[in-house]
Amino acid sequence: MAHPEGDRSHASWEENGRRDVSPAETRQPGSLKPLDRKWEGNGLFHLTMSCIALLFIVVSISGMYLTNLAISFGQILPRAALLAVLLAGAVFYRWRRLPRAVNLIAMTFWAVLFSFLHLIPMFVAARMRVELCDAFLAKIDARMGIEVPDVLKVMGQFPRLHHFLGVCYDTLIFLVTLAIMVPPMCGKMRVAKEYAIATLVAAMISIPLFALCQAVGPWVVYQYPPDADQEIYVKTLLTLKSSDWFMLDFSYRYGLITFPSFHTVLAVLTALALWSIPYVRWPAAGLAGLIVISTVTTGWHYIADVVGGVVLALGAYAAAKGYTWLEARISSRESVRKGDRTLLHAS
Q1: pTM
Q2: Cβ within 8 Å of residue 259, ≥6 positions away
Q3: Cα(3)–Cα(271) distance, rounded to whole angstroms?
């Protein structure tokens, strides 16, 4: 027997999805023709994301060939199946005429796809044989007047705070998930697109920069012991520096990019995306701020990494704003052209 609360929740979801659809625009389920204004303006975005995905695939295939990287198809198949399920869900909810559901699934699809695609170029960049820049980053910290050992010394006096910030560091995935899902659920597709574009812009800048400026971590310069996760990261990075074949692991979760701190980049971008949602605005901003601080208190990053991450995040966000502005201009012109053609046919 269905629970009455569940029935009301489902009805509310469908009502929200169908809101603003006039009777003249209504079509029977099964029609995949343009539906209403909620569907307009996303075509260029999905085309852009497809082109970026193609770029990542080309770079990945060529990079794997040139740098002796390999990947098992056993890792690809379940992820491809997940992406296929998401696409099928988007088609189904488009058939059901639920724009918010379609947008939510579409943004989830792109997030899942690029969570895999960004890994290969990152590993390819790590194969580049360049001089490590740990000493250079530590020198920048010294010139700014604050260094990682100073922060760790303070944290040593407040062990509970240190532990709390360590927990905050690990909540980034939760915050990113909110930034991916909440804006499209709330009908703020422009915000969702800006977050996706900004993240990809930041990645496309960070990965080439990582190929040129690589660092291990502050513990190399300041001689403090790395923790267990940092040891796994160091082992992976050093293995990548050999000329032997390397088998990629899509489950690897420790990152490789030190400068700029991509943990910081994602924290700032998620805070900016969720700022548009009133009921999560301040909690998200507060948690994002704690995550940024924790990148240093956990000993993972130099101060310079964090500053670079903030600058990159703001620059990528500005680029994403420019993209959605351009997208709106193109959509507006296309709407005018369609209107002119309609009037011409009517006359």
Answers
A1: 0.83
A2: 133, 137, 209, 210, 213, 215, 302, 304, 305, 308
A3: 36
